[in-house]
Amino acid sequence: MHNISLQDLYLNDSELLTAQQHTVDYLLSLDAKRFLYEFYRTANLTPITSEGYQGWERSNEINFRGHFFGHFLTALSQAIVESHQTEIQNELLEKLTTAISGLSYVLANSEGSPGYISAFREIALDEVEGYEVNQEERENVLVPWYNLDKVLAGLIATHVNLADIDHEVARQALDLANSFGLYVYHRMQLLPNRNQLLTIEYGAMNATLYDLFNLTNDNRHFKAATYFDEFELFEELSNDQDVLAEKHANTTIPKFLGALKHYQAIDKLLGDEAYLALNPILLENREIYLKAAVNFWDIVVESHTYVTGGNSQSEHFHQANQLYYDAENRQGDCTCETCNTYNMLRLSKELFKVTGEKKYLDYFERTYINAILSSQHPETGMMMYFQPMGVGYNKIYNRPFDEFWCCTGTGIESFTKLSESIYFYDNEANTLLMNLYFSNTYYAREHNLYFETVVDRTVGKVSINVKAIESEKPTKMINLKLRLPNWAEQQDFEMNDQKQAMQNEDYWLATVMDGDVIKMNWQYKLAVSAAHDNPAYVAFTYGPYVLSSRLGKENIDAYHPNGILVRVGTQETTYQDYLTLKKKSFCPEALIEDYQVLSSPDRLFEIELNNVDEQIKFAPYYQAHNERYGIYYKIRHAQEMLAVNNENRTVSLVDLSLFDGNNSEYTHHLEQHKSEIGVAEGKTYRQANPGGAFSYRFDLKRYTGAIKVILTLHKEDVDSKLNCSIKGDTTIAQIIAPIAIETKEPWVKVEIEATVTTNEPVRISFSTDASSSSARLFGVEIQKVTHE
Ligand SMILES: [Zn+2]
C-alpha cells in the first residue's frame, strides 16, 4: 500500500477546506526571508532582512531556532500540492523558492563546514555531543539536532512534493539535503559520546536520514542515520518491555518511526551485497527494528493513550495504565501534547503500509479527528499545544508571529496534508482503499475513473459514485476496498440498490466500474470509555467523535505560562466534574443506555444523557472552541470505587523526574552554574560539579500547609553529598546523602518535611562544595502531607 497522488484528490468537506485555507493564509503571512536571517548570520553572510523572528526562533535567549523554518518548508510544499488553485499555488511556490534559493546561497557562500546549513553555529552541536563549551560561546539552542531534523525533513518534502511541479526548486532542495546528509555523516565519524547524543531530543533524525538514503541510495546517508538509532531501547521494546515511564514522549515517538524506516531501508540495501557483507549485523538485527516499532505502538495505544488518541502529561509518558492519575492528580492542563499525535499518525501510517493491519487505520481516524482537527481554531486557524482531558478547561492557541511552538510547526504540517491518508492504493492488487470518510473527489486517472464521495457526518451516511472521467474513452476496472470502522457495530450497505453482505469485520471489497453507486449508513452509537486505573473515570464517543460537555464562555482566554514561552489553558474548578447516575449501582454502561441526540446550530449534533441527574449537553470535542469543556467525568454513586482506587495514593502536588536541560526543567525555572545532566539506569539526573549549584521553582498552585519533599538519589552515591535548601516562607537547609541500603532497586528516597504558609512558589536549591561533585539528583516530588 502507498499514498495516492494528492494532486488528483479534491477535498469537499467544508470543515477540512476551512482548516486548510486558514493554514495556507497563515503560511502566506509568514516571511521566508525573516526565517533565513539566522542562517545568513551563522554563515557569516549579511542577512537580507533587518531582523529575524522571535519566540522559539529567537537567538538572544533559550531557543529552538530553525525548527519552524523546517516545518514551514514542509508545509509550503504540501500546501502547493493540496491547494489546487493556480494563483495560490504560485504564491506559495514563490515563498518556497525564496526559502530554498536563500539556503542554496548560504550553502555556496558559507565559510563554515561544507554542507552545514543551520540557524546556529556548530558549537551548539558540540555542546550536546559532550564537548566542553564555555558559557559565553553557547548558542542557547536547547535541542539543536531536533531543529536540524526539521530543516532536513523540509528539504526532502520540498524535493518530493515539487518533483512534478518545479524541477529546479526540487533539484536544489535535494542538493541541499544531500550535502547536509554528508555533513552529518562526517560529523558522526568523530562523535565522542554517542549516549550523550541520544539523550537529547533529536526529532526524527534517524527517520529523516533514512528517507534521504531512500532518495539518494548513498550508503553514507544510511550510515549517518544509524548513529541516531537507539538500539538498546529498540531491543527493550522488541522484548515487549514497557520502559516508557518518565520518558519524554515527543522525543521517544520519532525514534520508533526511525526504527521502522531502518527496517524498510534494508530492502534497498539488499541490492548492495558488498555493503551487507561488511555489515552482517544489519540483516541479523533487522526484525528487532520492526518488532520494536510494532510493540511500541501497541504499548502506547493500549496503556498510555486517552480517548482522543493523545498521550503524555507534561510532555512525558508515565506509568502504564495510569491515565486517571495523570490527568487528575498531576497537572491536568498539560496532557496530550499535540506534536505527539502528529508523530503517532506518521508512525501509524507507516506501520499500516508495512504490516497491512487495520488497527493502525482505526487509530488514525480517531486521532485525526479528535486530536488533530480538534487543535485548530476554526476562525483564526491558530493551533494548540496541550489538550486537557478533565472538566472545566479552555483551549489555548498559539499567537501567529512571536511564539512558533513545536505544536504550531507540526500543526502547519498536519493542516496541509489533510487529504494524505484518505486513500491508499495497492498497485499489485489494483486496489483503492478508502480509509477516512470525508466528502471528496478522487481522480484515478490511469483507470479513467473518478470517485465522488459525499459524507453526511452528522449521521454517518456515505455515498460513493463511480464515473468515467472521459466518457468517450474506455475505463479500467478497479477494486474498491472500504474500511469498516471499529466503532460501527452494524452498517447498512448497498451497491446499485442491492443490499450487500459483509465479507469480514475489517473491510468491504468489490470490483467497481463506471456507473456504480455505493451507499453506506454507519449508524452511530454512544459508547463509554473508562480509564484503566479508575473505572469510574469515563469519556464518551458517538461514532468516531469524542464528546465533550458544553460549559460556557467563562474566562475563555485565560491562560498561564508553562515551559519555554508556552501558554496553557486554565481549569475553572467551579464546574462540576462528576455525573450522578440515577441508578444506584455502579455500572458505566448504565450511562449510555438512554440518551437523546439533538440537532445543533453550531455542532454536528448534541447529546443528552437521560440516566444522570445533571443536564449537560455533550457535542463533538473537535468542534469545541470559544467555550469551556470537559471530556473525562467521574461517576458519582461509584464513589466507593473511587475511594478504593485512591486508598494508596498520596497526593502529589508537583514532580520533576526528567532532567533534560529542556522544557521539563525550564518549566520549573531551572537556574544553574557548573552542573550537568546525564543518564544512569535509564533515568536522567542533574548533578552539581565542584563548586556548582542548581535550583528549581515549584508552583504548588496556591496550596498551603505541610509538604513532604521527596528526592530520588542513587544508592551508589553514598560518598557524595548534596546540599539542599528549601526556600518558602522559612528556609530549611540540609545536607543529604543517600544511605547505603540493600535493595534490588538502585534508588534511594530522601524525604524532607516543610511547611508552606504563603501562595508563593517554593524554590529548592542544590549545591556542593568546591572539592567534589554532588550526589546525582534523579527526581523531586512534592506531596501534600495529609493527616486523617
Ligand atoms: Zn509540540
TrEMBL record:
One GO-annotated biological process of the protein: carbohydrate metabolic process
Domain Glycoside hydrolase GH146 substrate-binding: 664-781
Organism domain of life: Bacteria
Record-annotated Non-reducing end beta-L-arabinofuranosidase-like GH127 catalytic domain positions: 11-419
Coiled coil segments of this chain: none
InterPro entries: 6-hairpin_glycosidase_sf, Beta-AFase-like_GH127_cat, GH146_SB_dom
Protein name per UniProt: Acetyl-CoA carboxylase biotin carboxyl carrier protein subunit
Matching PANTHER family: PROLINE-TRNA LIGASE (DUF1680) (PTHR31151:SF0)
